[in-house]
Prior knowledge:
With 212 residues, the protein is mainly beta. It is built from two helices and eleven strands. Strands 6-5-4-3-2-1-11-10-9-8-7 form an eleven-stranded antiparallel sheet.
Amino acid sequence: xxxxxxxxxxxxxxxxxxxxxxxxxxxxxxxxxxxxxxxxxxxxxxxxxxxxxxxxxxxxxxxxxxxxxxxxxxxxxxxxxxxxxxxxxxxxxxxxxxxxxxxxxxxxxxxxxxxxxxxxxxxxxxxxxxxxxxxxxxxxxxxxxxxxxxxxxxxxxxxxxxxxxxxxxxxxxxxxxxxxxxxxxxxxxxxxxxxxxxxxxxxxxxxxxxxx
Length: 212
């Protein structure tokens, strides 16, 4: 009984403390899902230090299914689409700034809550939800992260071009077991640069699969 009271007091103390904007761990791996105009599930690797992201996806758009393995190299403004079945790559220009996971200092706290239950130890997860503007006033976002560790849970954002899109993160692990996955495969360096106009990742994906 005493242990329960102590835990309850600790939880109450946590809830009483005002959360602050935070940065997610610089190296993360796990899985995510995206839905609304484009439905996707993916395994992801995230490297904020090198500004690199790897996505191994399966999804659907306009009732058409697709799979996609991409490496996004933001410092090089380059995206590789990787085809393992014939060991080839397509190299494309990437027009986007790297957006680190976490909560920017300009965000406003919407609220703090417990996912699950606060009735007993191990039954719930303390999270914070924030709202704010996307970079360059491109739209609005609402992001939920864990109170401890600033691990992403859900991000909901709105742009004029794509409307509302929601990303759910799960099975997150701090660190990357195989960092080589964030480099182009050996068969990619000989790939010639694409003559396509630079575009952001969502534009490239939707354009590709809406024509499939």
